[in-house]
Amino acid sequence: MGKPSLKQILDALKKQVLVGKSYLDLAKGLLKADPVILLSAPTFFGLTTDGSLELAQMAIARLYDKESRAVTVRKMLDQAGREVESFNHGTEDEVRNAIAESKQVLAELEPVLASIRARRNELLAHLDPRTVADPKALAAKANLTIPDLERTFKETEKMLIKLACLYEGTVGGLNFWGGDDYQAALDWIRRAKCESIEKYEQEFGERWTGPRPKDCSRGKFDLL
Q: Is 105 a domain residue?
């Protein structure tokens, strides 16, 4: 089996950042969505939110895996250091400085990476007996917030883009085209819910007393 080139490694790592960051953005968007809309399918939206947060963590876990054969950010930096002469869009000093800065960022991210590693090994990829016996212990030991995940993706993206720019001249952030299309789906649900409420009020001639989505017209009852 052949050894992957530095370009292949950079491309694979950038894809992990792209996918993981997109899962995180989806979870954040759903957490901020109108609760009335989410209640239209609580199981679906609840599992989608939780699953997206777990997949975002797993993407970071893959990027910084400790498994000896895994392709990781650290392995990429080591290979870049051995192949400085292959960077066609930067001087040797620029490349070495970018590698050194990236390793400093990794050191600063280590507390977050340690929490993700523990969560991956004791819950997400494996059910550790200690976690089953005491789920709160893992949460306390491996505390993790959405801002932690945001920071890790942001810093990882910056270092990969910088090195890719020096290596092959590519620039630009990592984003799916239409990555926020879930918002359109939520809006269609909002519209359908509003239409259902309006139909109820017209048919029965009384105000809808249940939850109402934001920006949902109250029709003739606005005047009462």
A: yes
Query: Based on the structure, what is the number of domains in the chain?
Result: 2
Query: Do 115 and 190 fall into the same domain?
Result: no
Q: Print the domain residue range for 142.
A: 6-177
Q: Please indicate, yes or no, whether residues 94 and 64 belong to a single structural domain of this protein.
A: yes
Residue 223's pLDDT is what?
47
Residues of the chain with pLDDT under 50: 223-224
- Give residue for tokens 């950079």: 10
Residue 215: per-residue pLDDT: 81
Question: Which pLDDT score is estimated for 209?
Answer: 87
Q: Are 207 and 170 found together in one domain?
A: no
Q: Output phi, psi for 29, to 5 deg.
A: -65, -40
Q: Say how far apart CA 91 and CA 93 lie, in whole Å.
A: 5
Which structure tokens are listed for 20? 């993981």
DSSP string, the chain: -PPPPHHHHHHHHHHHHHHHHHHHHHHHHHHTS-HHHHTTSHHHHHHHHHHHHHHHHHHHHHHT---TTS--HHHHHHHHHHTGGG-SSS-HHHHHHHHHHHHHHHHHHHHHHHHHHHHIIIIISS--HHHHH-HHHHHHHT---HHHHHHHHHHHHHHHHHHHHHHH--------TTTTTHHHHHHHHHHHHHHHHHHHHHHH-S---S---TT---GGGGG-
- Within this chain, do residues 113 and 212 fall inside the same structural domain, yes or no? no
Tell me whether residue 1 is in a domain: no
